[in-house]
Design a protein that fits this description.
The chain is mostly helical and about 425 residues long. The protein is built from 17 helices and four strands. The strands form two sheets. A two-stranded antiparallel sheet has the order 1-4. Helix 9 packs across helix 10, helix 11 runs parallel beside helix 17 and helix 12 packs antiparallel against helix 13.
């Protein structure tokens, strides 16, 4: 469906797209602004030695900011962690649950709590990383921190917390005034920005003989297949038939007919892998900057491709798929609305029975959606680890890139369709006035 030529004819959509691009460009500029007090060469050597670990995976989610230790080193992960905590608390704390049901005012209050918690998590994580960096050494044994002490620690905490807070603001501005989900787009751009270096590293591996050319072709074919599978599953849905009775108004027969309630196989989108990654990356990132043998051992066990890492990743993905779907879709509310407007599922009683039927169908679809997400995120990691390929080519990165791109394209298409309908309504009004 070719809709691109129409984008230039819609000023509002143009403004949203331009604003989004400017905000993302600001994010990319910030990735290259270093935090004061760090020896860049020693830090670069430290991260090269950590290649293939969970620390490298965390650097991918920050768009390379962590490996440069820039002002955006913490990335958007503290905000995601805060969102997870608040959503979990909403399900168990009555006050928060009440707030979530108060509409726009309740949503704003929860958003404000999320911002405060983001700052707290950023301060904690920034403090531990600053303390850990003071004991770190580069490849030649040179210290990474030029002048250790509380001055460096305070400067680092303030810088990193300010960077995350600014990123949080950027994401919210993109969501409200731009196009697409701002937080997802920041992660998307961070992954995309590291793709060229990943391709270059892979080419060097082939030239150096560390990777067979046939293996490279196999991996490219695998990537294409995974992308096609992701698109197929993201478009997949189950349509529940909804019957509406006919109504007689005067001499006219209104309504009637059959419509469909579409239930997506993956209603949660790319949120579960992002949440799952955040849960694992948050403590593991700190563990890599702390010189405690027991914690180091845990960080090693949580490296990408390891058994414990994969098991935790699968469990978290399945949990967050069900959890986020439950937040986004309420079968009881849908059933009540259908009953209110006279709609019913053929063969199912309106009300409670309809809600139970929709919930059963949605639960089964969500199981397949959760398994699909887990398979795409975990299975390619075995091949990536086996063939020594940078794991930016793994399933998680591909899933986020493809999922966010599809979601953004759908939002652009929605704006185009809305403007088309507005144009038709305006034409109708003009004709009516002329008559």
């Amino acid at each position: 469906m070719a809709v691109t030529p129409n984008i230039s004819k819609i000023p509002e959509l143009n403004r949203r797209i331009i604003l989004t691009l400017i905000m993302l460009a600001v994010f990319r500029i910030g990735v290259y602004i270093p935090t004061p007090g760090i020896d860049a060469e020693a830090l670069s050597g430290f991260f090269k030695a950590a290649s293939g670990t969970l620390l490298d995976f965390a650097a991918m989610f920050t768009g390379g900011a962590l490996s440069r230790f820039s002002v955006f080193s913490l990335g958007i992960m503290p905000y995601i962690s805060a969102s997870i905590i608040l959503q979990l608390l909403t399900a168990v704390v009555p006050k928060l649950e009440k707030l979530s049901k108060e509409g726009e005012s309740g949503r704003k209050a929860i958003t404000q709590y999320t911002r405060y918690l983001t700052i707290v998590l950023s301060i904690v994580q920034g403090t531990m990383i600053a303390i850990g960096l003071e004991s770190m050494r580069g490849p030649a044994g040179e210290p990474i921190v030029i002048s250790p002490g509380w001055g460096f620690r305070l400067m680092t905490v303030i810088t990193l917390t300010g960077g995350t807070t600014f990123l949080m603001w950027l994401g919210e501005q993109i969501t409200e005034r731009g196009i697409g989900n701002g937080i997802s787009l920041i992660i998307f751009v961070g992954i995309i920005a590291r793709m060229p270096s990943a391709v270059n590293n892979t080419i060097h591996l082939v030239r150096a003989g560390e990777m067979n050319f046939l293996i490279l072709l196999l991996l490219i074919m695998l990537m294409i297949g995974v992308v096609a599978f992701i698109v197929f599953m993201e478009m997949g849905q189950r349509k529940i038939p909804i019957q509406y009775p006919k109504r007689v108004v005067g001499r006219k027969v209104l309504g009637g007919g059959t419509q469909h309630l579409p239930l997506k196989v993956n209603s949660a989108g790319v949120i579960p892998p992002i949440f799952a990654s955040s849960i694992i990356v948050f403590p593991a990132t700190i563990a890599n900057f702390v010189s405690v043998p027991a914690i180091k051992k845990i960080a090693t066990m949580l490296r990408p491709g390891a058994l414990i890492y994969n098991l935790l990743y699968i469990v978290f993905i399945i949990f967050f798929t069900y959890f986020y779907t439950a937040i986004q879709f309420n079968p009881k509310e849908v059933a009540d609305n259908l009953k209110k407007y006279g709609g019913f599922v053929p063969g199912i009683r309106p009300g409670v029975n309809t809600a139970e039927y929709i919930d059963t169908v949605l639960s089964r679809l969500t199981l397949w959606g959760a398994l699909y997400l887990a398979a795409v995120c975990v299975l390619p990691s075995f091949l990536v680890a086996e063939f020594n390929v940078p794991f930016y080519f793994g399933g998680t990165a591909l899933l986020i890139v493809v999922g966010v791109a599809m979601d953004t394209a759908q939002q652009i298409e929605s704006h185009l369709l809305a403007r088309s309908y507005e144009g038709l309504l305006k034409k109708g009004k003009i004709k009516g006035r002329g008559l």
